[in-house]
Amino acid sequence: AQKVTQAQTEISVVEKEDVTLDCVYETRDTTYYLFWYKQPPSGELVFLIRRNSFDEQNEISGRYSWNFQKSTSSFNFTITASQVVDSAVYFCALTPLPFANTDKLIFGTGTRLQVFP
Amino acid sequence: GAVVSQHPSRVICKSGTSVKIECRSLDFQATTMFWYRQFPKQSLMLMATSNEGSKATYEQGVEKDKFLINHASLTLSTLTVTSAHPEDSSFYICSASGTRNEQFFGPGTRLTVL
């Protein structure tokens, strides 16, 4: 069975602090994709990153960075020097490869990040 | 990136009425579309997957007669909530996939049933 766990329900930080959002996944598939999405108060899901299970290189994009550790089945997301605009709910998601003719996304329960000025 | 639209963005209806939500891929052909439901402060739960020209595949526990899905073309899928009740009030989000493992999400539709 596939499952994504985001143990942190809510995190509050003060602007300019660094914050890490945890994501642990379970899958029996050897190939899969992992994702992070941001959902601001408007509700629209914003795609942040997709990572193939064969690519364990960490990635940095501006203030965002991702740490993929296959050995611990984790795909953590760090925001450096957080800003108020980073306040949102962040979802980690998993999709197995291949999966019939669909690309079913399995979402974690989300982490609500509040960044205070 | 690819753009997916949803219409309407918000709808308020009386109990017992049916509501249709449209999901369109504006600049690509979507062979597969997905419908998700999100209750307040909860995660997205997949309701069904639809492929153009064929019947939708519903997730366990989702009533197919209650949530009618039609994927008539490569750019349009519709979700009809039939005989809506207050417990159907939720945020409904669609996504569209043109190539494998790239889903593009719509902005969502907030349904309130009085």
User: Which percent range fits the helix content of chain B?
Assistant: under 10%
Judged by helices, strands and strand pairing, the structural class of chain A is mainly beta
Secondary-structure element series of chain A: EEEEEEEEEEEE
What kind of assembly state do the chains in view correspond to?
Answer: heterodimer
Q: Tell me the number of strands of chain A.
A: 12
Average of pLDDT of chain B: 91
Strand content of chain B: over 45%
Number of strands of chain B: 11
- N-end to C-end Cα span of chain B: 37 Å
> Which of globular, elongated, flat, extended, rod-shaped describes the shape of chain A?
globular
Question: On the 0-100 scale, what is the average pLDDT of chain A?
Answer: 91
Described by strand count, sense and barrel closure, the largest sheet of chain A is:
6 strands, mixed
Helix segment count of chain A?
0
Helix content of chain A: under 10%
Sequence stretches where pLDDT stays below 50 over 5 or more residues of chain B: none
Largest sheet of chain B: 7 strands, mixed
Notes on the protein architecture:
The complex is a heterodimer of chains A (117) and B (114). Chain A is an all-beta fold and 117 residues long. Chain A contains no helices and twelve strands. In chain A, strands 2, 5, 6, 10, 11 and 12 form a six-stranded mixed β-sheet that branches. Chain A has a four-stranded antiparallel β-sheet with strand order 3-9-8-7, with no helix packed on it. In chain A, a hairpin with a 2-residue loop joins strand 7 and strand 8 (64-69). Chain B is mainly β and 114 residues long. Chain B is 0% helix and 54% strand. Chain B contains no helices and eleven strands. In chain B, strand 7 (67-73) and strand 8 (76-81) form a beta hairpin. The mean pLDDT of chain B is 91. At the A-B interface, loops of A face strand 5, strand 9 and strand 10 of B.
